[in-house]
Amino acid sequence: APDTPVIDQAYSKLSNSITVEWRAVPGATNYMLTAQDGDSFVETIVKNSPGTVTGLKPATLYRITVRAINSGGKSQPSPFRKVKTVLAAPVLSVRSVSCDSIAVSWEAVHMAAGFSVSLMRSDGLGRMLKQNTTNTSLIFTNLDPGALYTIKAYAWNANGMPGDDFTYNQRTSPNAPVDVKVTFNSGALRAVVSWMPTEGALTYSVTVSSGLLELRCNTSSASCTLPSLQCSSEYHVSVTAYNDAGSSEPTDAVSLKTIPCAPVNISIEEDGPGHLLVSWSSVSLGHYYVVFVKSDDGLEVHCNTSYPQCHFQSDCGFTYFISVFAYNKAGQSPLGDVFNYTTAPCCPGDFRAVFTSSDTVRVTWAPVRGADLYETRAAGGSGVVLCRDTATACTLSALQCSTPYNITVYSFSEARGSNTSCPPQYVATAPCSPEIKNITKEGLSVVSVQWQPNNEEATYVVTARGEAGLWHCTSTRNSCTLMDLPCGSAFSVSAIARSPAGQSFPSYSIPLETAPCCPHDLTLTQVTQSVTNISWSVGRGAQTYVTTLESPKGQAKCHTLQTYCLLGCITCGTNYTVSLRAISETGLTSSCSYQGYSSSACCPSGVKLYRLSNNGIRVFWQAPDETRSYRADLHGSKGNFSCTPSSGLSHCDITRIPCGDVYTVVVAPVTDKGPKLTLFSSFCPKKIYSVTCSGSSVGMVIYRGKSNAKHI
């Protein structure tokens, strides 16, 4: 067997191997390298030095020996050397997080104290970037978009010994394309999108969006065609570049507005006499519109407008051919439908409306071109009154009173129908007849009449008609007052309404009777001290009368058909109020007041005569009222005598009265103005006394009554 080799040096450059160098042994044909780690070992046969043992574990301490081999056998193991394998290489995870940055990360490496990561463009351009870190990730920024980079990383141990390195090629994502242009073909409704190629981009994607609609076009070239676009649409076009590292940011959206669609919902109508209104729905992205109108006589006009309608001069009875186009910067809309429109026949002229009665009007007009039928329409009140005829006249009846009507005559043709632009003529019917609701007597000669105000801007005239004449009152409201009506008269009250349109029929008449007149002359005559006769003149309209004398002491009343009345139970010396009520046949009453009445003063009672010396007589009585003065009168054939006592006394004396005569004695009250002989004394009782002479001129006073004489 060969001699034992001697190891010069052993070292590890890779984490899974150790390289051994030794001096050659004469006669040896092969060498066996052994790396032992505890109970496990790895053996490798090599031809000569240096030799490498592989399949080892990273960062592990091994005992390395070498044995020489020939045909005679194996030598003894060489003295061992202890060698530790280097750290394992970090396994990188690399990605391009943006077009100018790359993120590198790895798992922790056993026994690693730090890591070294370097980055350089694979094509050698630019400078190398290197970073040392104790972390397990880092990011390289400010890189070139779309460029391929080589990344190398290794770990080192606490002694700064580097381990295996790991190499990875990573490309940055491309930059967004620039100079994006959109060319629109309005006729074909398609667009071509082009841009400048970007470095490192393999493919491009064009995104076209409009609302919820999204179209895509993928290509490896620098342009793309977008077919079948919609009219009146605004698209947002963006381009994204792709490579194996990812995609760029989309370019800023470029707006693409297609041509507007052909206008729809086109309507044609006559907007007044001689005016044709063409209108349509607004078209999205339509900046302005052009309307072409060609009449059947070959004349063509057009209207350029930014509004969805256009006015044209037109003539009644013509046919017009109409087309509408929308425009914007992209071009003209496709041709839409072509419409034809025949104008209505002309409006009737020389229009006249004449009332033949308060509710009937006759309408006439001149014939017009193209009209086959005429319709007369009176609109007002609660409905419409119609009249259709081929003639140029029509009569409208049963119109409502106090109602404004718009009367319009429409002409009809089979092609168009009615000319609805014909102007109406305003007419108003006469006011409605008022309805008297109430008649209120506010005084003997004042009556308030109320009615239902069923007209606007009308003046009402109320008339009271009777044998006494006519009375009127006027108002624009719902009532007026008839003044100075004569008493005791009968009237028929009616009302009419007047307005500029005419006069209404009279209302239904309401009978009115005024209260009877009070008698002008009333006379009171006192018949006896307790009976008074009242007489009066005739009160016009009165059938019966009620007269009343009233005082705090009582009341006297009588009801009679005559013009006089006797009232009994009159109290003497009493002030009475005098009233009379005149009552008509229908029960209307007039209360009449007159000047107060005073009954005659009360007569004294207990009248007695006593003889005095010197041929005198003393008259005694009992006074009913001590505040009143009285007077005693004696009437005889030999003379008349009287006396008046002082105030407050109830006797007086008469001297030198002749005897031998019979005297009538009356004691009566005296008024403030003197004795009221005519009235008061006639009601006081008269007593007859005989004054006798007894042998001289002085006699005896004897009372002569209806029976026996009485000496007093």
From TrEMBL:
Q: What gene name does this entry carry?
A: Fndc7
Q: Which Gene3D superfamilies match?
A: Immunoglobulins
According to its UniProt entry, this protein's organism is Pycnonotus jocosus
Check the record and name the CDD domains matching this protein. FN3 (cd00063)
Report the protein name in the record. Answer: FNDC7 protein
Against Pfam families, the record matches this protein to: fn3
Task: Using the record's annotation, list all stretches that form the Fibronectin type-III domain.
Answer: 1-88, 89-175, 176-261, 262-346, 430-517
Cited InterPro entries = FN3_dom, FN3_sf, Ig-like_fold
